Each structure stands twice: as C-alpha cells, then as structure tokens.
Amino acid sequence: MPELGDPAHRPLNNGSSDVGDVSWITPTVQILSSAVAFGTPWHTWQYVAQGKLPAAHKALSHAATVIAATGLDLITQPELLAAARAEHTANTAATPYVCPIPKDLLAPPVVRAAAH
Hints:
Residues 1-21 are annotated as: Disordered. The protein has 116 residues and is mostly helical. It has a domain at 54-93. The protein contains three helices and no strands. Helix 2 crosses helix 3. It is flat.
C-alpha cells in the first residue's frame, strides 16, 4: 500500500487536461460548467450540437464571470495568492513534479510530404 507522499499514492483521475503538468509547478484552478443536457455522451455530435444552444452560452458566460472575478480577487488581494502558493507548496512538497519526458529525448524532425 503506498504511503502518503509516495507518487503512487496520488489520487487517480480518469480524465486528462493540458494543465496537468502545470498544476504540479504552480497553483491552478479550473471551473466546470454544465453546458449540455445531463447524460449527453462526450465526444459525440449531440454534445457538439448543444454547444450552439442558449443554455451553453449561459453556462460559458457564467464560467467566464467566475474566472474574471477570481482573477480580480487575486490581483486586489495578494494575500490570497500567497496563501494559495503556500498551500500548493505544502501539498506538493512530498511529491515534487517529475517530468515523464527524458531530458535527452529530442523530438523528431518534421518531414513534409512531397507535393504532387
């Protein structure tokens, strides 16, 4: 059984996000806002089609308002950002970020297809 502080103890999340690596280096937040009907499967045309509905626009507008208000709070109340950084440091101290990409790995060159 992994112990607290062991990277294997980290909770498993069945999703992924492009902020995953960043969140181990600096405090991050995300907002989830319901923009489609409950039960709509992800990555389907039904999900995409609902993105044009007024309910989706309302959800995104609400999310944008929350994000803006959070940013304003962090700018006008620097102690909030300091507290977030302190909490983040405490939470990640035992499990520091380890990049999964080897340092000596080079990306392959981009090869363009020949024009016909």
